[in-house]
Recover the amino acids of this structure.
């Protein structure tokens, strides 16, 4: 990655992180409710019976209510478990599953861990992002876990990134290893994006 792209990514992440930190709790709660409605509708539209999702941290658009509701409806939900080698293991979400702090302080399920290839069987990937542009390029938080996962899948299902409305932007800095997403889910809309051509 060139220094210019790395610097641009770092600057944009810092700005987005600051915006997220100053958001009011009322706005966060409203966003989480909207995300649940949008994701429920997306799962229904795609007929997804097995999905991957992430457990949101307080500054992210909330996904936890969506995950709990999906599990209650009998949808198989795989949650990511970070590994030191930069790959993701997966664990099946349960209604009463314990959550602990994983690598980088992120919430992760406690329980049986499936290997990285477990995600190959899902109908939909729901992933975090700092921002997504209208070409479908996603700016993550810089660790590359989801880019590696998407890039290694033999048959990649639809991939939707979850962001706040203001984080769907005209363009994000990207490099060759960055993977495009199928679409974006915000608290008010779900948009299918044209993936970038490689």
């Amino acid at each position: 990655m060139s220094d210019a792209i790395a610097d641009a990514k770092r600057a944009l992440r810092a700005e987005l992180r600051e915006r997220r930190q100053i958001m009011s709790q009322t706005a966060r709660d409203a966003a989480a409710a909207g995300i649940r409605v949008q994701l429920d509708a997306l799962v229904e539209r795609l007929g997804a019976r097995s999905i991957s999702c992430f457990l949101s941290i307080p500054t992210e658009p909330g996904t936890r209510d969506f995950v709990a509701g999906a599990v209650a409806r009998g949808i198989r939900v795989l949650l990511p478990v970070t590994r030191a080698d930069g790959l993701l293991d997966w664990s099946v979400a349960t209604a009463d599953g314990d959550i602990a702090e994983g690598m980088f302080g992120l919430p992760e399920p406690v329980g049986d861990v499936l290997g990285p290839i477990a995600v190959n069987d899902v109908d939909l990937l729901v992933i975090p992002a700092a921002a997504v542009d209208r070409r479908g390029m996603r700016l993550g938080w810089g660790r590359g876990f989801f880019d590696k996962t998407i890039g290694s899948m033999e048959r990649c299902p639809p991939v939707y990134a979850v962001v706040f409305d203001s984080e769907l932007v005209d363009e994000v800095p990207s490099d060759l290893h960055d993977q495009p997403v199928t679409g974006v889910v915000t608290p008010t809309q779900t948009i299918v994006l044209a993936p970038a051509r490689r």
About this structure: The CA atoms of residues 27 and 101 lie 25 Å apart. The mean pLDDT is 90. The radius of gyration is 16 Å.
